[in-house]
Amino acid sequence: MFELPADLNPALAGISWMRGRWEGTGYRQWPGQDKSEFFCQVEFNDNGGPFLHYLCQTFTVDAELRPAEPLWMEGGFWRPLADGVIEVSLSTEDGVAELLYGKVQPGRIEVVTDAVVRPPQAAVEYTGGRRLYGNVDGKLLWSFDRATTQHELQSWMWATLVRA
């Protein structure tokens, strides 16, 4: 049973289950690359405002599946709007900025890219994506599908995370 904190901004009620730090391992695969395991750490925090601050970091793993070298990172804000819509603004370590929208459902949020801005030197010519966050048996199931100028939207990274 999950209880809403007394000091939670009412706008966050539908996404409050995401608050906190989550971590675990998952897999990544992309055309031309072998499937590999990675470590993922996701944090959702609030400061009393009508939004969550978000940080996602991924790492290669060592033989014991512990984080080793940084792979990819993004951060931003999750803002619930009217009628169960959520707006997510993100940016990555290599300068890509993205705006996504989706619907909040009980224990499940799927967001899809509305707009992408990327610098000419971005490592990947990212054009859009879809992210899924689901609360299943107290775990956070996370997936990131992406599209680039060379590849249509397809699965890229997915992980099962537990509260840290």
Overall body shape: globular
Radius of gyration: 16 Å
Main sheet record: 10 strands, antiparallel, barrel
Q: Give start-end ranges of low-pLDDT stretches.
A: none
Mean model confidence by pLDDT: 95
SSE series: EEEEEEEEEE
Can you count the helices?
Answer: 0
Beta-strand residue percentage = over 45%
Strand order in the sheet with the most strands: 1-2-3-4-5-6-7-8-9-10
Number of strand segments: 10
Helical content class: under 10%
Q: Whole-Å distance between the termini?
A: 18 Å
SS-based structural class? Answer: mainly beta
Protein architecture, described:
By secondary structure, this protein is mainly β. Helix content is 0%, strand content 62%. It has no helices and 10 strands. The protein has strands at residues 20-28, 36-45, 52-61, 67-80, 85-92, 97-105, 108-117, 126-136, 139-148, 154-163. The protein has a 10-stranded antiparallel beta barrel with strand order 1-2-3-4-5-6-7-8-9-10. The chain starts with 19 loop residues before the first strand and ends with a strand. The relative contact order is 0.19.
Task: Give the tags.
single chain; 164 residues; mainly beta
Task: List the topology elements.
Elements (H helix, E strand, L loop, with lengths): L19 E9 L7 E10 L6 E10 L5 E14 L4 E8 L4 E9 L2 E10 L8 E11 L2 E10 L5 E10 L1
Antiparallel strand pairs: 1-2, 1-10, 2-3, 3-4, 4-5, 5-6, 6-7, 7-8, 8-9, 9-10
What's a concise summary of this model?
The protein has about 160 residues and is mostly beta strands.
